[in-house]
Amino acid sequence: QVQLQESGPGLVKPSQTLSLTCAVSGGSITSTDYYWTWIRQLPGKGLEWIGYIYFPGGTYYNPSLDSRLTISLDTSNNQFSLSLTSLTAADTAVYFCTRCPRGYFGPGSMDVWGQGTTVTVSS
Amino acid sequence: DIQMTQSPSSLSASVGDRVTITCRASQGIRNDLAWYQQKPGKAPQRLIYAASTLQSGVPSRFSGSGSGTDFTLTISSLQPEDFATYYCLQHGTYPWTFGQGTKVEIK
Predict the structure, then answer these.
(1) Parallel, antiparallel, or unpaired for β A79-84 and A18-25?
(2) Which residues on chain A are in Cβ contact (under 8 Å) with B91?
(3) Tens digits of residue pLDDT in A33-68
């Protein structure tokens, strides 16, 4: 059974870059059956779709984050990563990595989630 | 962006009650809709996908319906473990968007 585990710094300063990694176990990120996705949950608020990547490296990002966002695959370590630049307090959130099965016309909805990692942007 | 209007934002119900939560999309999304349950401090868990398909392992008291713009999640007989927050997700049009959530509380 596939499991996802996020890792990264809990505290980042404003204007810096956030780097998060999602380790995948029990399955391969090179599978063409899945898209690997990041979601975040703002404090006390709802959920926001960040974007996804699929093997061998195609991506789709939320336009609201596109200019600051990079999602990449690390096939050697069976993990994928998120990089978000120019951080502000508005980026403070719990970040989840997830898996989306491939559907008929593209990715389906997220079926497996990591436990989430809290990121606080503060000086 | 497609707006997902979820209602109600909260509700109080008793064990055994039938509960209905609705999600309305600002544009048609075919059946590209999923429902998630989230408990405090935990990641969301998928209950329903493709609007009406029950996720493996999810109790049959959960059901989903709808297509196009109007969708419904129904819990036929609320159980103690169902008190949580529920979200809908549309993945028919980019960017994917969530409803604002429905918190189901004990009456």
Answers:
(1) antiparallel
(2) 100, 107-109
(3) 999 999 999 987 789 999 999 999 999 999 999 999
